[in-house]
Design brief:
4 helices, Rossmann fold, alpha/beta
Length: about 150
């Protein structure tokens, strides 16, 4: 587990870019934290590092926002508004975890048992005027990704 402190959105995006630079297809990343803690900011930095140049907003009302880069398909989920697991079933949530696309999931606890285990769990917590960001690799590929970006 790695923990860092950021005191700006730019720093959060920079650290997200480091993770993205070591990412592999099919990875699942949980983004956890309170409202406004920086989950979407993290996703923005992650996507920018992978070459996405358009707007990156929280997909709160859409639930999922797809992004395409030269190398990757990335699905950014925001499950905050989910109140029933049937909503995720109707969305076809399982189809997104095809082993090829990268999935970033905000509020994964709302998906409970429908979501596969993450490769990396990222927790953003308020600390004064900044954020404490904890990177917890869960899978073997998650461990390798964190090791690679820590070099």
């Amino acid at each position: 587990m790695i923990s860092i402190f950021t005191d700006s959105d730019e720093q959060t995006e920079t650290f997200a870019g480091k993770i993205a630079s070591s990412i592999n297809k099919g990875m699942i990343i949980y983004l956890e934290g309170d409202l406004g803690a920086g989950k979407t900011t993290f996703a923005r930095g992650f996507l920018r590092e992978l070459g996405f140049e358009g707007a990156v907003k929280s997909p709160t009302y859409n639930i999922v926002q797809p992004y395409q880069t030269d190398q990757f398909t990335i699905y950014h989920f925001d499950l905050y508004r989910i109140s029933d697991l049937e909503e995720l079933e109707a969305l076809g949530i399982r189809d997104y975890f095809d082993g090829d696309a990268i999935c970033l999931l905000e509020w994964p606890e709302k998906g409970k048992d429908l979501l596969p285990a993450p490769d990396i769990r990222i927790k953003l917590d308020y600390e004064g005027k900044g954020r404490q960001v904890t990177f917890d690799p869960v899978s073997e590929i998650g461990h390798k990704t964190i090791e690679d970006c820590d070099r």
